[in-house]
Amino acid sequence: MLRHDRGIVLRSYPFGEADRIVVLISPHNGKLRTVAKGVRKTKSRIGGRLESFMDVDLVLYEGRNLDIINQVSIRDTHAGMRTELDRVTAASTMAEGVDAVAQEDEPSVALFELLSSGLSTLDAGPAHPDLVTAFLLQLASVIGLAPSLDVCAGCGKATGLDRFSFGAGGVVCEACRPDGAVRLRPGLTAYLADLAASDLDMLPTTSPEFSGDGMGVIRRFMEFHLERRFSSLAVLGS
Ligand SMILES: [Zn+2]
User: Fold this and answer.
1) Higher-confidence residue: 141 or 48?
2) How far apart are the C-alpha atoms of 115 and 29, rounded to whole Å?
3) CA distance to 77, 99, 167, 169, per residue, from 177 (Å)
4) What local confidence, expressed as pLDDT, does residue 234 receive?
5) Measured in angstroms, how far is the CA atom of residue 196 from the centroid of ligand 1?
6) Distance from the CA of 219 to the center of ligand 1, in angstroms?
7) Would you give the DSSP letter of residue 104?
8) 166-185 b/e with 16+ CB inside 10 Å = b?
């Protein structure tokens, strides 16, 4: 049976003699694992439309385990971001984050929209230094994992929050502070809360000392909760 779907390509890898597995995020069906047949043997027209980050419409033949790609048409190549290595690296981190949290057969409009907006922001030109940090914060929020940034993750107190605990899930007060909570630079928490709440293409003005620390905290937070490490991570424009 044939069916239609849409997706942004997260990654692909060789499969068998001539095929590739292509993993996409669909707005309505979550993570799609599909097969592109024969793309490694010939100059296949389909293959060139399935590069990472491409937003495509698909006609899929429903297979027993994996759906087979029958037709592909491009909605957006996200060509703008491909000219600069640091923007491609940022896109890779975004795709990796979505890949880590997306489930198969599960509506995922918010995840899809977040990735789409992140890639479009990268297309538009030199990116905000903390775009990836903001993206990861918002990704955490989409999956219900948003770190507490304005009240203590332990008791809800709103003052004296100068440490961050990965396990407790956000900033903590002196009384609630577990072992291993890291001390944060003054003002960083408020800045991260700003990043979490802003549109990706309208992020607040940063100061350079926040960028490295902010990314460090959020990366470790995500890695702690997702139990995986990111292979690609960059602070933009540094
Ligand atoms: Zn507390």
Assistant:
1) 141
2) 15
3) 46, 32, 10, 11
4) 52
5) 22
6) 23
7) B
8) bebbbbbbeebbeeebeebe
> How many Cα atoms sit within 13 Å of 79 on the Cβ side?
6
Q: How far is CA 138 from CA 168, 182, 185, in A?
A: 18, 21, 21
Give tens-digit pLDDT for 146-175.
999 999 999 999 998 989 999 999 999 999
State whether the Cα torsion 27-79-99-214 is positive or negative. negative
- Gap between the terminal Cα atoms of the chain: 49
Whole-number Å distance, alpha carbon 72 to ligand 1 midpoint, is 52
Q: How far does the centroid of ligand 1 lie from the alpha carbon of residue 229, in Å?
A: 29
- Tokens linked to 205: 């003005």
CA of 141 to the centre of ligand 1 (A): 21
Which of 2, 5, 114 has its CA nearest to residue 56?
5
Q: What is the average pLDDT score of the chain? A: 91
Cα–Cα distance, 122 to 145 (Å, whole number): 25
Q: Could you tell me the distance, in angstroms and rounded to a whole number, from the CA of residue 169 to the centre of ligand 1?
A: 12
* Span from the CA of 221 to the centroid of ligand 1 (angstroms): 18
pLDDT in tens, 116-138: 999 999 999 888 999 999 999 99
